[in-house]
Amino acid sequence: MKIGLSTKTTAALMCLILTTVVGSGIALVYAWQEKHRMDEMVSANVGDVVAMGKLDVALLKQRGYVEAYLPTRRCGEIFIPLRRIAKEMGALSGAGA
After folding, report:
1. H/E/C letters for each residue in 1-59?
2. 3-state DSSP assignment of residue 70
3. pLDDT at 46
4. Quick one: DSSP state of residue 77?
5. Model-level pTM?
6. Which residue in 6, 26, 4, 2 sits closest to 14, CA to CA?
7. Fewer beta carbons within 10 angstroms: which end of the chain, N or C?
8. Shortest CA distance to 78 belongs to which of 88, 69, 87?
């Protein structure tokens, strides 16, 4: 029995289509498994991420508060009265001893 060219071509085309469909199915199953794994990881770590974000915001606010009190070159005169008061307080404590 002789197999014709159209039969060979049809068989080859059917093999290619079958291979493509099977490969696509395997890729979809793999993608579903990966999505499920990622969802589990995200739900397990979301509390830690939220806590870290809040801590980061709190630290940035604290840094801003500290920088607001640090003197700059133009604001150095703020400490002049404080130094004078400290000297007076030192003289008072020395006088009472």
Report:
1. CCCCHHHHHHHHHHHHHHHHHHHHHHHHHHHHHHHHHHHHHHHHHHHHHHHHHHHHHHH
2. coil
3. 80
4. G
5. 0.44
6. 6
7. N
8. 69
